[in-house]
């Protein structure tokens, strides 16, 4: 094995190890806070965030609220719970977006919970990013993994429909011909 191959293998091994560490970190640090957030949300402590509209038109993500000031106050409530969650997510996302950890290897074990968590906070993430360039890595990873999930689900739907169409038989009717018509003249 050449030195170049050894370096490549060492780099890939390191990226996979770091991806696994970040997935574990997400489950240990973010998910418990996320459970606390949903408890508060069920108790009605985040009504403005809950009322925001999120449109996922991959790869673009849009959010709309009619009470931005209230949203900003709400996000900082409950001892800054949402901010703590987002800061932890940003730290994790940075490893994947910067290529330190292999985002492809972490996609299956982590993407659905990461994206679900990020989606709950998209109204604030989009606002913070547009005003202060905060949560850039979280937004980028959410956009990447969300787009990939959208493409894979769409391809599956198309393949399922194609498989269903291949089972459909279209009846054919025998052609027996057309009788010629004659025109009678009025002479």
Walk me through the structure.
There is one protein chain. Strands 1-2 form a two-stranded antiparallel ribbon. The protein has one domain (3-150). It has 187 residues and is mainly α. It is flat. Helix 1 packs antiparallel against helix 4, helix 1 (3-42) runs parallel beside helix 5 (103-120) and helix 4 (77-97) packs across helix 7. Helix content is 72%, strand content 5%. The mean pLDDT is 90.
What's the shape? flat
The count of helical stretches stands at 7
The strand count comes to: 2
List the uncertain runs.
none
The average pLDDT is 90
One letter per element, helices H and strands E, the order comes to HHEEHHHHH
Distance between the termini: 101 Å
User: What does the main sheet amount to?
Assistant: 2 strands, antiparallel
The helical percent reads over 70%
Quickly give the structural class: mainly alpha
Cα-atom Rg, whole angstroms? Answer: 27 Å
What count of domains describes the coordinates? 1
| Strand content bin | 5-15%
Strand order in the largest sheet: 1-2
Question: Helix and strand layout, with pairings?
Answer:
Layout: H1 3-42, H2 47-51, E1 53-57, E2 60-64, H3 68-75, H4 77-97, H5 103-120, H6 122-132, H7 136-166
Antiparallel strand pairs: 1-2
Helix pairs in contact: 1-4, 1-5, 4-7, 5-7
Descriptors for this entry?
single chain, 187 residues, mainly alpha, two-stranded antiparallel sheet, 7 helices, 72% helix
